[in-house]
Design brief:
205 residues; Pectate Lyase C-like; 0% strand
């Protein structure tokens, strides 16, 4: 066998091993144990972790990696999740009331029927997130990216959506009473006027 062919075969083997390693990446059990015991796990690796039903009010998880994690029915009220990565996480029916999710990545996350009342979601990435029937009353979503998000039947009463991006978001049957849309980008790409409350008063071209 020629030397060149051997090099190619070895390269393919290493590449396959690298791909498999990436696909099989899972959480660190010691991080899960630490979180459950202390409610403190900043910057922990909890990718693909199963934490459904966990009672973790006030937990400290800033900077944690929770990609694809299952937190269905968990209690995370008043928790600290700043700069955390919750992409594609299952957060269905989770109590996140009063939680700080500023600058967090929630792209593609499942947040239907979740309680996010009084939560801080400043500059959070919620692209393609499912927030149907979520409680977002008094939530701070200023500068949040909600592009293609599902907000159908969500409660956004008194929410702060100043300069948020709602491009192509689904707001069907959502409650928008007293929500602040000043400077926000509306579902059709239009800009909302300053002082837009309860609805987007679009700027004229």
């Amino acid at each position: 066998m020629r030397k060149g062919a051997v090099v190619i075969i070895l390269g393919c083997i290493f590449a396959a091993a690298f791909v498999c390693a990436g696909l099989s990446h899972a959480f660190k059990q010691e991080d899960v144990d630490k979180l459950l015991a202390t409610k403190k796990c900043a910057f922990c690796d909890l990718v693909n972790a199963t934490l459904s039903g966990a009672k973790l009010p006030g937990a400290s998880l800033s900077g944690a990696r929770l990609i694809d994690a299952d937190l269905t029915d968990a209690v995370l009220a008043d928790s600290k999740l700043r700069n955390s990565n919750l992409s594609r996480a299952k957060l269905i029916r989770v109590d996140l009331s009063g939680a700080d999710l500023s600058h967090a990545s929630l792209s593609g996350a499942q947040l239907s029927n979740t309680d996010l009342s009084n939560a801080k979601l400043v500059d959070a990435n919620l692209t393609k997130a499912n927030l149907s029937n979520a409680n977002l009353t008094n939530a701070n979503l200023s500068k949040a990216n909600l592009t293609n998000a599902n907000l159908s039947t969500a409660n956004l009463t008194n929410a702060n959506l100043i300069r948020a991006d709602l491009s192509r978001a689904d707001l069907s049957a959502a409650k928008l009473s007293s929500a602040d849309f000043s400077g926000a980008t509306w579902v059709d790409g239009a800009r909302c006027k300053e002082g837009s409350s309860g609805e987007c008063v679009k700027e004229t071209p």
